[in-house]
Specification:
Layout (H helix, E strand, L loop, with lengths): L5 H18 L3 H15 L5 H6 L11 H13 L3 H7 L5 H5 L7 H10 L8 H10 L11 H19 L4 E2 H15 L5 E6 L1 H4 L4 E2 L2 E7 L2 H8 L5 E7 L3 E6 L4 E7 L4 H9 L2 H13 L3 E3 L2 E4 L2 E3 L4 H7 L15 H6 L14 E5 L10 H10 L4 E7 L3 H26 L4 E9 L10 H4 L4 E5 L8 H13 L5 E2 L17 H10 L3 E5 L9 H9 L4 E4 L11 H10 L13 H7 L2
Parallel strand pairs: 4-7, 11-12, 12-13, 13-14, 14-15, 15-16, 16-17
Antiparallel strand pairs: 1-3, 2-4, 5-6, 6-7, 8-9, 9-10
Helix pairs in contact: 1-2, 1-5, 8-9, 13-15, 20-21, 22-23
The structure holds 2'-deoxyguanosine-5'-triphosphate, calcium ion (2 copies) and zinc ion.
């Protein structure tokens, strides 16, 4: 069975709801499905994973019946109940639900009117009808709704055509497999990834791999026999481009050992950085290439990059900074920032456990944090729902949790455990937990997990309201994006940053590979204004704690030094800042 993604599950649930609406099903039945949808939309874990761990029942809003449907879906590939609901309705209508402004009733009406029976040509047919101006003639429709439908079809097409960029983490997996393959032959001296991967960009288009060798031809011959290759696009003495079976493009570049440094510099980019560097070289009467630096007719070769930069009077520019800002001017003054690094991190403040949607217990997460050498670990489970359980019960849960944490803190000296929650910023801009409970915590991460699609002004106000709450410490994954899946919230960042500064709040750099949020260019802007960052792994398991490294990548691309990052502080220093 395929592993269904949350997104796929959501599409199926939404189609079932649409069918129920058309058939005029019972309101409570529909409500149950809608609750499940909004709760799955806010989940940070995969529903499929939860099923594998027999924990579907723990998703709030997902009752016994839905647990059974989901289990059937994951086991057999289909959920009979949902299929039955859609029986007797034209299949084509469900393909229309993805269009902006098209709900169940509209989709049904359009599919009847234009005889759209199958999913396959549904969008083509509706586009045709819109182009002919037939939609605006229907009762209840007008020129505006017709244009919306047309635009929305075009947008969908475009986003499907655009080749998706890989997540940095995926690119890294592929590149490390290729590099270990390359290193199987003794002719490979060194091999590393260049381009956007080396610059640690959040997404990567193609992979660029550099090799140093005394025998470049042998390296190329070896490379093109890599088993995952679908097609060899080009093959030269020192260069080859291939496409893998998963459609990833790989450029391999081989150089002699004595000019490897120049090759690294040249193909690490970015293009903008290289353009500026070339200008800097020209000003010195030099010209640059992947083979070295030319002064008149004389070519000087460089074994390593540091010497390459040094020859032009520049200090080494870390790859994360090579984006064409003012890194070259600063390198000339030896004034580049000393970027934060993994070993500066003294703890993690965004960690989930089995108390919410994590897969490891409090004790397991604490043990793992000790292994990592952390001084502190902040447990920030999703806060228990006050609406479902009532204040009294939530208070008891918190009391019990506090005792568990105290017990760990008093029984050993290696690590301090902090008690926080990740609290939802609701659609109406209030927090999902009242102040009287928030103030009992060591700190609070406030995050948006639902209703992402809000107009700019409204979602900005919603975010600022959270920043103005005196008990909120950190704004979690502030942009709300998930890469390749969900756009960032349409926030007015200047206003958000001003509010963070004024209220002395901290912004998270969330290290989950598909979030990487705050995005790097916004980190750069925020720290310029003096707003501190907290790098959180958002771990939902022991191994996820390593997402700290991905967060560090983002921080470095945002020019963060140690002093801008909260969790480089010692536990003592941190205590003064938290509640
Ligand atoms: P990507 O692949 O879209 O994620 O971004 P990059 O930065 O890896 O871009 P890519 O793969 O086109 O090129 C790698 C680096 O090589 C790029 O940052 C600049 C450098 N470079 C230098 N000369 C050339 C050239 O002639 N063609 C290309 N494509 N890149 C060059
Ligand atoms: Ca590339
Ligand atoms: Ca390339
Ligand atoms: Zn979250």
């Amino acid at each position: 069975m395929p592993r269904f993604s949350n997104k796929e599950v959501l599409v199926m649930l939404k189609e079932a709801v649409a069918a129920m609406e058309i058939k005029g099903d019972n309101k409570f039945g529909i409500r149950a499905y809608q609750n499940a949808i909004s709760s799955i939309e806010g989940l940070t874990m995969s529903v499929y994973d939860l099923w594998e761990n027999d924990r579907l029942g723990e998703i709030s809003g997902v009752g016994a019946a839905l647990v059974q449907h989901l289990s059937e879906l994951f086991k057999t590939g289909k959920a009979t109940e949902w299929e039955n609901k859609k029986k007797d309705l034209p299949d084509g209508m469900f393909a229309l639900l993805v269009l902006r402004g098209v709900g169940a009733k509209t989709a049904f009406k359009l599919s009847k009117e234009f005889n759209i029976l199958s999913r396959i040509d549904a969008l083509e047919k509706i586009k045709e009808a819109a182009k002919k101006g037939l939609i605006q003639k229907l009762p209840g429709f007008g020129p505006k709704s017709e244009k919306d439908i047309l635009d929305s079809v075009d947008q969908l097409k475009k986003s499907k055509q655009e080749k998706q960029r890989m997540l940095l983490s995926q690119a890294e997996d592929i590149s490390s497999r290729i590099i270990s393959y390359l290193k199987q032959i003794p002719e490979v001296n060194e091999a590393i990834s260049l381009g956007s991967l080396r610059r640690r960009a959040a997404t990567v288009g193609d992979l660029d791999i550099a090799v140093s060798s005394k025998n470049p031809e042998k390296v190329i011959e070896h490379f093109i026999t890599y088993p995952e290759i679908k097609n060899v696009e080009s093959k030269g003495d020192r260069m080859s481009t291939v496409i893998l079976t998963n459609d990833t493009q790989i450029d391999v570049l081989v150089s002699d050992i004595d000019s490897y440094g120049s090759l690294l510099q040249h193909f690490t980019g970015s293009k903008q950085h290289n353009i500026r560097l070339r200008q800097h070289a020209l000003d010195l009467g030099l010209s640059l290439s992947q083979y070295g630096i030319k002064q008149g007719n004389k070519l000087k070769k460089f074994e390593d990059e540091k010497k390459f930069y040094g020859f032009m009077g520049l200090s080494f520019v870390p790859p994360e900074l090579r984006e064409g800002k003012d890194e070259i001017e600063l390198a000339a003054l030896n004034a580049l920032p000393e970027l934060v690094k993994v070993s500066d991190i003294k703890g993690d403040l965004h960690v989930h456990t089995t108390a919410s949607d994590g897969v490891n217990t409090l004790n397991e997460m604490v043990e793992a944090a000790i292994e990592l050498g952390y001084e502190f670990i902040g447990i920030a489970d999703h806060a228990p729902s006050v609406i479902n359980r009532g204040i009294k019960e939530v208070e008891q849960i918190m009391q019990k949790r506090r005792e568990e944490i105290e017990k760990i803190n008093s029984s050993q000296k290696k690590i301090k455990v902090l008690f926080g929650y990740e609290v939802n910023i609701l659609k109406d801009a209030t927090l999902a937990m009242p102040d009287e409970l928030l103030k009992k915590l060591d700190y609070v991460i406030a995050s948006i997990h639902t209703s992402f699609d809000m107009p700019r002004e409204e979602v900005t106000k919603r975010t600022i309201a959270a920043l103005e709450n005196p008990y909120v410490t950190i704004l979690g994954h502030p942009s709300g994006r998930t890469i390749n899946q969900r756009e960032a919230l349409d926030l007015d960042w200047t206003k958000v940053f001003e509010a963070a500064l004024k209220n002395k709040k901290i912004l998270e750099i969330n290290g989950q590979p598909s979030r990487l949020d705050l995005p790097d260019h916004l980190v750069y802007d925020a720290i310029k204004m003096g707003i501190p960052m907290m790098i959180g792994s958002d771990a939902h398991s022991v191994t996820d704690l390593l997402y700290m490294k991905s967060g560090i990548d983002v921080a470095r691309r945002g020019w963060c030094t140690k002093k801008e990052v909260l969790n480089t502080l010692t536990y003592k220093e941190l205590q003064n800042i938290l509640h």
